[in-house]
Amino acid sequence: MNGDNNSSKPYLVIASLNVYANRAFNTKLTIADNVNEAFKLPDFIIQNSRALLDAHKHSKKTNTATIRLDDFERVDASTIKIHTKRTMYYHMLLTNRCMDYKLTDGMTLRDLYECNESISPINKSELGNQIGINGLVITKDGYLLIERRGLDKTTWKDKFAQPISLALKEKDLFYRDEKPEEITDATVEDRFCKVVRDTLKNNFGLREGEDYDELRFSENFMGFARDLLEGGKPNFYFYVVVNYTAREFTEKLQKYAALTIWQANEINKTLPEGNKIKPLRTEKLQNVYYLVPWSQAKVNFYYEMNLEEGGGTLVPKRQFAPRFEESKDNPEAVCSLQKSVKKQCGQALLACLSYAEILNLKEKLNF
Fold it and tell me: Which of 84, 252, 260, 294 is least buried, going by the fewest C-beta atoms within 10 A?
């Protein structure tokens, strides 16, 4: 990773606090969950909740119970422990995703809760801080699957993003009628991986063991960081390598899109007028997702300084200028990204790519 603030080349400011990296690919996860305590919004947030929610009036949103990160600790060289409680998706929208939204008096939540140069320690934060799950999908010949986010998303609208992006819901980690003693560390690790597996199946029709190798937390977990743009919101990062070349994967996605359209049409035959599912465009996946050669993705990372937990400079800037260069050997491989692109990237995608650099993932995967 390199960058020069005085250089004429594009550079990125990664506004994330890198807390932990799975450098040895041997991380184990343990959890201390407080099922009897739920996060409570500060009084100021409650009093201004209507105005803050208005910041998301054009976004598609559904409230649900999620998992909040209360604290984080390193147990030993290869074990991390997370302390959790319950929160709601709307709590995150009203806090982490409203940090710079100006209220009627011009005040922002950043002014009130994160006004210092150092970010609040996670166990002192007054924000929603639900755990986010983000991840890269990579083909076996070294192509990245990149998403162009829709305008109805609650963050990074119409920006490039990683294909795995979701909140850790309560129902994903803890099952109804399950006794606490039944939840082992291995259970927690597998359920983090299950969130990734379910996303790959639901969004792309990919199945573990068939389309990609078995996921293991120790292997596929890249690290944990806090998004400074969102007030220090915690995110866990993963990667998955599919058993397809870029060309094969394109065909796989196209077939899945066609199947999805067919299934919707079959369901529509049983529904009355007015309740029918809006048909998907045949080219939907081509318009929304791109396969980019990782080796051709010229991304320079510029850091203002090395950040450590509990300290560092807050960087609420959005100076993102990734450059995807056309492959001379295979110009068709980059699909619609054949020309250099200067579109903004979502923060989570940059953090995913940052962790891939930190872990030397290209070398590990022989790309």
Answer: 260
> Number of folded domains in the chain?
1
DSSP 277: P
Is 254 a member of any domain?
Answer: yes
> For 357, what's the count of Cα atoms within 13 Å in the CB-facing half-sphere?
17
Q: Is 50 within 8 Å of 36 (Cβ atoms)?
A: no
Its sign, for the CA torsion 159, 20, 140, 299, is positive
Q: Is residue 5 part of a domain?
A: no
Hey, is 327 helix, strand or coil?
coil
- Domain assignment of residue 7, yes or no: no
- Surface-to-core class of residue 352, CB atoms within 10 Å of its CB (0-12 exposed, 13-18 middle, 19+ buried): buried
Indicate whether this model's pTM tops 0.85.
no
Instruction: For 198-243, write each residue's pLDDT tens digit.
Output: 999 998 999 999 999 999 999 999 999 998 889 999 999 999 999 9
Q: Which domain holds residue 212?
A: 12-364
Residue 4 falls within a domain, yes or no? no
Q: Are 237 and 226 a contacting pair, CB within 8 Å?
A: no
Sequence-ordered alpha helix ranges (H) in the chain: 43-47, 49-53, 89-94, 109-113, 170-173, 185-204, 217-220, 246-268, 284-288, 347-358, 361-364
